[in-house]
């Protein structure tokens, strides 16, 4: 049995025997009812905007820690973020170091972008420049 060339309009009545080999390009419109049984191999690039319904029962580290945990709230200078589309329709991407050198008006505008949702935005990777880190 070969897969169809065109996506289905309605969900199938019978589940697949194996998972698909091709990942979807967009998140599902409807969230899963249960957590996945398989953990992801890479961390998410976008932090959750909604607090967890099930917070940790106890701290995940012994307290107090000697120093702040590195990497949680800093600019990721190795990841490009979507800035805008070029005249040819292709996305123009920039590094956080580019954004840091812009004025406050540009920084605020770029960090406030919430679309397109299928791309990494400055707010997702330039946490310090966008002002998401505590002073």
Give a structural overview:
This protein has 135 residues and is low in regular secondary structure. It has helices spanning 96-100, 104-111, 122-125, and strands at 81-85, 91-94. Strands 1-2 form a two-stranded antiparallel sheet. The longest helix is centred in the C-terminal third of the chain and has 8 residues, at 104-111. The protein is flat and about 55 Å long.
How would you sum up the global shape? flat
Arrangement of strands in the largest sheet: 1-2
Radius of gyration: 20 Å
Overall pLDDT, averaged?
A: 77
* Strand residue percentage: 5-15%
Number of strands: 2
Helix content: 10-25%
Structural class determined from secondary elements: little secondary structure
Brief overview, please?
The protein has three helices and two strands. The chain has 135 residues and is largely without helices or strands. The longest helix is centred in the last third of the chain and has 8 residues.
Key phrases:
135 residues; little secondary structure; 7% strand; flat
Write the layout of secondary structure elements.
Layout: E1 81-85, E2 91-94, H1 96-100, H2 104-111, H3 122-125
Antiparallel strand pairs: 1-2
């Amino acid at each position: 049995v070969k897969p169809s060339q065109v996506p289905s309009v309605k969900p199938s009545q019978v589940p697949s025997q194996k998972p698909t080999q091709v990942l979807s390009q967009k998140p599902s419109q409807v969230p899963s009812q249960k957590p996945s049984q398989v953990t992801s191999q890479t961390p998410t690039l976008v932090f959750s905007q909604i607090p967890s319904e099930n917070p940790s029962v106890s701290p995940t580290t012994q307290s107090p820690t000697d120093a702040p945990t590195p990497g949680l709230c800093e600019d990721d200078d190795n990841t490009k973020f979507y800035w805008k589309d070029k005249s040819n329709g292709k996305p123009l991407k920039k590094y956080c170091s580019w954004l840091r050198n812009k004025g406050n008006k540009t920084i605020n505008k770029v960090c406030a972008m919430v679309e397109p949702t299928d791309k990494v935005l400055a707010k997702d990777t330039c946490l310090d420049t966008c002002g998401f880190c505590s002073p």
